[in-house]
Design brief:
The protein is built from eleven helices and ten strands. The protein has about 260 residues and is an alpha/beta fold. Helix 7 links the parallel strand 6 and strand 7. The radius of gyration is 20 Å and the shape is elongated. The N terminus is likely disordered.
Length: about 260
């Protein structure tokens, strides 16, 4: 295998347990991958500062460092939106799958992991990397429509996204959002679940009927009865979901990955 081909088959393993790191390194190396090891977030970021690695496995329960696995993934996503990142955990029952997804992970794997599973996940990951590299670029997000009845939040988000170079418009409710999108279609719609009149999911479904290609980020202002069900419905319709309050980096990372 040529050196160039090997360099494209790099894997980063981040785990504070030396035995797990060495186990994964041995398994992946035997399959022909070039493996980098990190015991924590600082080591991982130092490695990523020097080289591009397309596939990563990160332990959620990293030791008492500056970042846990969730925070490290969110940080990596800022510079590597196209990387395939898998979460590792020995306590799968403690984590909610959609929270792992929202942190930026592509999947999660429960320890102990069989060698066969590791090989399949790595193989599938690099096939996805190759497909992404070969296919035409996704439509670039340029125009964003924010549909939210909270004036302060809507204007704050519009200002922030405007500073990032996006063309942003606003609507105070679902009915106005539908009208604005029909007149000037957006590439992305950021929509609140709970609004007077037409609620978020209803508005989203009506817009998707007339424009199946538009992308959505569905947001919610905190925990209320039924919010998880609404989020599941949104994800089933192809939307990304995010709970308020959220950081600037979180929404920008989601937009870059759409």
């Amino acid at each position: 295998m040529h050196l160039e081909e090997i360099s494209k088959r790099k894997i980063l393993v981040v785990d504070d347990e030396a035995s797990i790191r060495e186990l994964l390194k041995d398994a992946f190396s035997k399959a022909g991958y070039l493996v980098r090891l990190a015991s924590g977030s600082e080591d991982a970021l130092a490695i990523l500062g020097q080289e591009r690695i397309p596939v990563m496995f990160i332990d959620l329960g990293l030791g008492l460092e500056t970042m846990n696995g969730f925070e490290l993934c969110e940080h990596i996503r800022k510079d590597s939106p196209d990387a395939i990142i898998h979460a590792l955990t020995g306590y799968a029952a403690l984590f909610v799958p959609h929270e792992i997804r929202e942190a930026g992970f592509d999947s999660h794997l429960a320890k102990p992991i069989s060698i066969e599973t590791l090989y399949k996940v790595a193989k599938d990951s690099f096939e996805k990397v190759e497909r992404t590299a070969d296919k035409p670029l996704n439509k670039i997000i340029e125009r964003i429509l924010i549909i939210d009845d909270n004036d302060h939040f809507r204007k704050m988000l519009r200002k922030m996204l405007g500073h990032e170079g996006y063309e942003v418009s606003e609507a105070v409710n679902g009915k106005e959002g539908i009208r604005r999108h029909s007149k000037q279609p957006a590439d992305l719609i950021i929509i609140d679940i709970i609004m007077p009149g037409k609620e978020g999911i209803e508005t989203m479904m009506e817009i998707k009927e007339m424009d199946p290609d538009v992308k959505f980020v569905v947001i919610s202002g905190g925990s209320w009865y039924g919010s998880d069900t609404e989020f599941e419905m949104a994800r089933a319709l192809g939307a990304r979901t995010l709970k308020k309050p959220f950081e600037r980096e979180q929404i920008l990372s989601i937009i870059k990955r759409l």
